[in-house]
Amino acid sequence: MGEASSVLVTGGAGFIGSHLVERLLGMGRRVVVVDNFCDFYDAAIKRRNVELAHGNTNYTLREGDIRDQAFMEDVFAAGRFDCVVHLAAMAGVRPSIEQPRYYNDVNINGTMNVLECCRLFGDRPSGRPRLVFASSSSVYGVNAKVPFHEDDRVEKAISPYAATKLANEVMCHTYHHLYGFPVVCLRFFTVYGPRQRPEMAIAKFIRLIHAGDEVPMFGDGTTRRDYTYFDDIVDGIVASMDAACEYEIINLGNSRTVELRELIGLIASALGKKPRIKQLPLQPGDVPITYADIGKANRLLGYDPGYPIERGIQSAVRWHLDHAHH
Ligand code: NAD
User: Fold this and answer.
1) pTM for the complete prediction?
2) CA-CA 20 to 30 A from 280: which of 128, 174, 197, 213?
3) Which residues are registered as beta bridge partners of 240?
4) 160 lines ligand 1 (CB under 6 A)
């Protein structure tokens, strides 16, 4: 008998990735993380995210860049992956407008390396690993029809970030079709909670309101988002690692929308403060609403998000206050 097979998590030191890694290790799975600890936000935060995992003998960290083909081939040759969860990416809509080439490079070329390695290596009975890919609700662009359904037309991305995720989904389908390995593309809807990326709205609002600083509110506060607690997202990822799927695109959201103004109010009341709001023009790339139809996730994955926004915000606020040093 050879060594037990393991799960590769790219981007495993990030917000969502580090929570997934902890869950998998808790389930007794062997996990290999690839992450380059890039400076999109403070790398020290990512080092802390994986601190808990370090003591676990089932955990291996391979520090490197998904754009480095030789490195990725070495990772795949050394590991025996029955499943690859590909989360490494440059995330975020607004910064992608500032750095479109960088987003394109990481998200397109990096994902191509992951797909090529899935083609070349693997440990499933079929010879190739199952791939779970982190896509995004942003692929829906300005979708007038709500809630967003996986079969809605999605060729109208309005940010470079969204366009890369859409292109990734298409290439995932191509590799599934040509080489037969199963692929699940999960469209995450605004994920929040402990360890959320510091530039994302909820983490930023908690910091600013706590400090008594002005909260920039883009637009009149009526834009709506479907906010999903990280634990629900991890449930969906883990379920898709075992689901009987060939190629599927699946929404993972909470299926309840919250207005921006309401969100700021919820955070302020969890902090026991009054927010000072500064209204600013809507930002390019921002969509007016995201709203997930989660019927397919429920049917295929048994997905049933358990965190209403009120409870999720309470726990996010508690965590951010405990970690207020950054
Ligand atoms: P994150 O930035 O915290 O995690 C991404 C990780 O990838 C980071 O640890 C980063 O260091 C790593 N990474 C970036 N470039 C890399 C490279 N070239 N090589 C190796 N590693 C690299 O972001 P997150 O919020 O945890 O998002 C995880 C995934 O989920 C991303 O693909 C993102 O696009 C997607 N997603 C997130 C959300 C959300 O609300 N957080 C919503 C939709 C989709």
Assistant:
1) 0.97
2) 197
3) none
4) no
